[in-house]
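Need residues for this backbone.
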């Protein structure tokens, strides 16, 4: 039997691949692969080559996305739905995937949703099924384990009829978004302490609800998390489940699941005759064998053994049973070389800051045809990006032999620089060097009013009620990159305004969704960061340069509410400014 490779759509769509020499398994073990793990630092980095083809019966590659609301609009419109469905088979054929996984979280339950999206989801599945089945492609979906969501999101008998199997996401029942501790992936409940809706937040309750409402047991795949969720207790004297906890556990250097995952979920899957188990996600298992030196992928393989008996040994590479037919490998040699190195991107993956090798800033570079797509990042407080190992580390761990790349003294000075804490509108806190914070005239004025100067280190908290955390993080990244820049000249109305002088770093940094770009402009204006406001406005100017009014409306989703007569009147009034 082969390992099946699916691709997941966000909506999410996922692919599945099968191992060509893996013995047949009665129960499926479906493994989602979070492809972004290739950008994690150090031992957290996980690439396709790290996947053990014998650890799973199906691998789902995540994700391909349509955007936060586009999937909803597509599913509602028969013409758009048909266009989308028609594009799926050619994509699967081109990329050698074996199927398509839907990860719409969740129909009729997200921003912009309407109750009719429950039926629109079924219409989309039905059309996909009709298109995929003649080609032998699988159609699967990741679905909710929350009963209140299931009730409004899914026509369970129809979902069961149309899908080859159903991945029930029985994890994240609890987490730091609540104000108490909780097991995020419990098998069963605890009547002694569970209360209210918490009674329903466990795997057994969710699976039984799917079964009771018409799901075929052999199609249900129970999802299990290969990661943990942590909390900071409000009071160390109050511990255990449902103990008060307002804050999450601080993030580590990379995501890793420690410990041993038990057999109880596997036994439960077999007892109910379910189709198998699903893990989220394979790259958060102990894939390097750091926690269990005797075996890699300990959690995944333990579940495989619980479902199917002994884990199959890896066969010798030089022999093969001729009676076993194998499928051609789906791995292809790349047909195109990566783009030439740029100032920021010397190679695919993580790259150090080219302007300061002693910086906490790094860049994840993805080859996109003949150009680079760049995702800026920043190491945690007190650490820098190691210019040789290409991970975040403490300055003292950078060896003397690379001091030509990184001045250790400077790194230590940076880590000890006085800080202020910037608090976003959604109450995220960002410790920032005082000199970086003062690049904002607004913050500089606040600090001066508080009597804080560049030598102070009292970590004063500055609330910024008009900037949410996601945007503030980007502003800080931009300011860190430009901390050494000379101040911009004063505005001169007589000087020609240019929009073609945006640096390559800024061009890459501002390759973001339109809504994010506009939020950055608003933040730069509110914070009074002249350089950021200048470059974001120039970016928008370049987006509309040379476009007709109608093209500009389409670009920015602006509804035209002028009548033809009003448009003509406006045109006449502004003839003087048109290019001759």
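Answer:
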């Amino acid at each position: 039997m082969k390992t099946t490779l699916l691709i997941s759509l966000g909506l999410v769509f996922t692919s599945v691949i099968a191992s060509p020499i893996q013995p047949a398994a009665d129960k499926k073990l479906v493994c989602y692969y979070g492809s972004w793990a290739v950008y994690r630092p150090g031992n957290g980095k996980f690439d396709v080559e790290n996947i053990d083809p014998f650890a799973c019966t199906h691998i789902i590659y995540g994700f391909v996305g349509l955007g936060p609301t586009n999937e909803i609009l597509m599913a509602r419109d028969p013409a758009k739905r048909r266009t989308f469905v028609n594009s799926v088979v050619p994509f699967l054929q081109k990329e050698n995937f074996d199927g398509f996984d839907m990860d719409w979280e969740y129909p009729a339950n997200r921003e912009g949703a309407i109750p009719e999206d429950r039926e629109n989801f079924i219409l989309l599945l039905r059309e996909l099924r009709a298109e995929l089945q003649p080609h032998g492609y699988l159609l699967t979906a990741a679905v909710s384990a929350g009963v209140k969501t299931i009730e409004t999101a899914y026509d369970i008998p129809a979902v069961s009829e149309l899908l080859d199997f159903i991945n029930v996401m029985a994890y994240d029942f609890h987490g730091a978004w609540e104000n108490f501790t909780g097991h995020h992936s419990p098998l069963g409940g605890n009547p002694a302490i569970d209360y209210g809706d918490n009674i329903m937040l466990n795997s057994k309750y969710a699976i039984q609800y799917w079964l009771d409402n018409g799901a075929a047991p052999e199609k249900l795949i129970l999802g299990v998390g290969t990661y943990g969720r942590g909390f900071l207790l409000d009071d160390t004297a109050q511990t255990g489940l449902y103990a008060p906890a307002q804050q999450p556990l601080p993030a580590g250097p990379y995501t890793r699941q420690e410990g041993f995952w038990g057999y109880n979920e596997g036994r439960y899957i077999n007892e109910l005759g379910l189709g198998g188990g699903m893990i989220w996600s394979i790259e958060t298992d102990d894939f390097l064998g750091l926690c269990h030196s005797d075996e890699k992928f300990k959690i995944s393989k333990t579940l495989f053994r619980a479902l199917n008996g002994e884990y199959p040994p890896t066969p010798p590479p030089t022999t093969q049973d001729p009676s076993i037919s194998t499928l051609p490998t789906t791995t292809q040699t790349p047909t195109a070389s990566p783009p030439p190195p740029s100032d920021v991107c010397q190679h695919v993956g993580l790259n150090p800051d080219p302007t300061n090798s002693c910086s906490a800033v790094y860049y994840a570079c993805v080859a996109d045809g003949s150009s680079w797509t760049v995702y800026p990042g920043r190491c945690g407080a007190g650490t820098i990006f190691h210019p040789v190992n290409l991970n975040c580390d403490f300055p003292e761990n950078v060896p003397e032999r690379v001091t030509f790349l990184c001045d250790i003294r400077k790194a230590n000075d940076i880590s000890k620089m006085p800080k202020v804490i910037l608090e976003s509108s959604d109450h995220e806190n960002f410790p920032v060097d005082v000199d970086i914070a003062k690049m904002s005239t607004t913050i500089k004025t606040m600090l001066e009013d508080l009597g804080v100067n560049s030598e102070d280190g009292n970590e004063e908290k500055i609330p910024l009620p008009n900037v949410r955390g996601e945007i503030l993080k980007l502003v800080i990244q931009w300011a860190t990159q430009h901390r050494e820049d000379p101040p911009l000249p004063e505005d001169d109305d007589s000087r020609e305004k240019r929009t073609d002088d945006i640096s390559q770093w800024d061009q890459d940094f501002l390759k973001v969704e339109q809504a994010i770009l506009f939020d950055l402009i608003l933040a730069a204006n509110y914070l009074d960061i002249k350089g950021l406001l200048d470059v974001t406005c120039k970016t928008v100017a370049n987006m509309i340069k040379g476009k007709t009014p109608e093209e500009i409306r389409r670009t920015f989703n602006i509804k035209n509410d002028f009548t033809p007569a009003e448009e003509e009147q406006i045109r006449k009034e502004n003839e003087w400014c048109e290019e001759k």
